[in-house]
Specification:
Blueprint (H helix, E strand, L loop, with lengths): L1 H10 L6 H100 L22 H22 L9
Helix pairs in contact: 1-2
Length: 170
């Protein structure tokens, strides 16, 4: 705006008559008014730019806050996924162990089936069971004397420990 004043003063011829002086004074007044209006307009533009910058700043801060919230949400999802992956891997290991155990059990069952299907059968330490030739109990020749001896051993001490019901009169 000051440039306009400088240009106006350069282009204006020197005042030679009172009409020219009035024109010059009017031109100076218009220039001052123009400078004031320019300054006001510059101030208004600066205020608008400051307001626009504030709005942009607020929008950027809001966007940053939303991004931070989104990052927190994604981090929580990532932690959940990490937990699920760890659970999956643990279950995968457990599954492999169970498969190995199943394989061992299946092999053992197959071995038992082969032993059953063989003609020899299963031998236990080379001992064969003998077929009984007579009944094993009751054996009267052992039971009768054992009962008699046991009865005497129990009955005699009991007979001495009992008190008689009737007492002799003096």
């Amino acid at each position: 705006m000051q440039e306009l004043e400088i240009e106006a003063s350069r282009t204006a011829p020197a005042a030679t008559s009172p009409a020219d002086a009035a024109k010059q004074a009017r031109l100076d007044a218009i220039n001052r008014k123009l400078v004031e209006l320019s300054a006001a307009k510059e101030q208004e533009i600066r205020a608008a730019q400051v307001e626009q910058a504030r709005t942009l700043y607020n929008n950027a801060m809001l966007a940053e806050q939303q991004l931070l919230e989104r990052i927190d949400t994604e981090k929580a999802k990532q932690r959940d996924l990490d937990g699920q992956i760890a659970t999956y891997e643990a279950r995968q290991k457990e599954y492999k162990l169970l498969e190995e155990q199943l394989s061992r059990v299946t092999d053992y069952v197959d071995q038992l089936k082969m032993l059953i299907n063989t003609s020899q059968g299963i031998r236990v330490a080379g001992i064969r069971a003998n077929v009984p030739t007579e009944r094993s109990s009751p054996r009267w020749e052992h039971n009768l004397p054992a009962g008699f001896i046991l009865g005497l051993l129990v009955g005699i001490p009991l007979s001495f420990t009992r008190r008689p019901r009737c007492e002799p009169k003096p």
